[in-house]
């Protein structure tokens, strides 16, 4: 079938895919689009590619069609510790500084591999964290890995790789972190699997940052070899959302081929040999970043300093014990907009808009004024808790959740929000209790059932997990697919169904 698609039809497909999925193929990559759609046509049971294209562009894509196309139109080609300069910088500069600053009252790190492909990148991050944090069991570590392609996520969850995934990796990495299978492949150790949470997320369509899908308050975001697939306007939107997903001072790491002064203007740029990093600077939420010649003083010798990695993880293995550590359970994904059932007071509505735009300082001020006039407003307290949680200020988020519950003990949503904060703090058992309170107050609270299912799954309680997922699916069947769920900030019933089925399918295979 390859090589027979007309330029006009291929151009129409390109425009359609850009509108529906955010993917864009310039003229120099148009053959990649043709090869991808040629392969996808076979899965859609078409004998010729032209007919498949005409069928696809005749109506909006379903979630299943988007996932199938994503699998064929994006490249699943990666390997462990890809782009060595990046991991050397992570090891010698970024992580040591974060670790030093977090030791003490609340030792925690949050890293997101956005567009994780088949899992080599997030597992590489997990290995590096184990090396750098000997007392890992005392830390609350989140390594979130997301991708739009369910096949990639399945392989990542399986954690089984062939030699090609280690093509630039020292042999001792395989010996320390993998076991050889009967088929001669390499399976990552269960202890390492537990440190990475995989989930489906569409960077072009899903909403982030959010407590609901665990994409808030990130210290470091990897988004490498992903932005090149997006049309310029969609890429700007994705970058803006990634900016909002970082804490102040957080880092965005992209591929060297994706760097752009125009696209990343809201970040400060930090130069390192063979690598450009982007940092979200304190007090600059509007997006007017600045250029920094080298690493800032907090990370080294100051502007103009030369960089030399100091730990050499890939070349100097040292004895170490593998410390089991469970990451937090993953909460469901969400959609673009939130339907507001009732018209709240104007100050609350304004604060909500500021919150959704990532203008957290302004949102806090607005809510503070509202609470000054209405000190028992549980809704305002809950929003303030969300604001603090998205900034990574978990102590304040916890405090305002507690105040909201004291003001309205019967609000199931407050208990649910408290559970998400407790999970981020690593207090899993307390989170379970809060979710059960939410479910007691509202037996039809779908998100509480789903979150409990995820927590049970993380703890290896698979029968209990299956029961919660079944209950969630039963409740979801009462909604229309496009109907937005309560407390979900835009997550629709159909989207959550997809997530549950994907989660249970991967667990069954594993």
List the helices and strands and how they pair.
Blueprint (H helix, E strand, L loop, with lengths): L6 H15 L8 H14 L5 H8 L6 H11 L10 H19 L5 E7 L5 H13 L7 E8 L2 H9 L1 E2 L9 H7 E3 L5 E3 L1 H4 L3 E4 L17 E5 L9 H14 E8 L14 E5 L2 E5 L11 E2 L53 H11 L3 H14 L4 H13 L3 H14 L4 H13 L3 H14 L4 H13 L3 H15 L16 H17 L1
Parallel strand pairs: 1-2, 1-7, 2-6, 7-8, 9-11
Antiparallel strand pairs: 3-5, 4-5, 8-10, 9-10
Estimate the global geometry from the Cα principal axes: globular
Largest sheet: 8 strands, mixed
Strand content: 5-15%
**Number of helical segments with 4 or more residues:** 19
Q: What value does the Rg take, in angstroms?
A: 23 Å
Mean pLDDT: 84
Helix fraction, binned, reads 40-55%
Low-confidence stretches: 297-311, 318-342
- Report how far the terminal alpha carbons are from each other: 35 Å
Extended strand count: 11
- Structural class, by secondary structure, is alpha/beta
**What topology, given as strand order, has the largest sheet?**
6-2-1-7-8-10-9-11
Strand-and-helix sequence, N→C? Answer: HHHHHEHEHEHEEHEEHEEEEHHHHHHHHH
Write up what this structure looks like.
This protein is α/β, with parallel strands linked by helices and 510 residues long. It contains 19 helices and eleven strands. The protein has helices spanning 7-21, 30-43, 49-56, 63-73, 84-102, 120-132, 150-158, 171-177, 190-193, 232-245, 346-356, 360-373, 378-390, 394-407, 412-424, 428-441, 446-458, 462-476, 493-509; strands spanning 108-114, 140-147, 160-161, 178-180, 186-188, 197-200, 218-222, 246-253, 268-272, 275-279, 291-292. The strands form two sheets. Strands 6-2-1-7-8-10-9-11 form an eight-stranded mixed beta sheet. A three-stranded antiparallel beta sheet has the order 3-5-4. Helix 11 (346-356) packs antiparallel against helix 12 and helix 12 (360-373) runs antiparallel to helix 13. The longest helix has 19 residues, at 84-102. The protein is globular. The protein starts with 6 loop residues before the first helix and ends with a helix. The model is unreliable at 297-311 and 318-342 (pLDDT under 50).
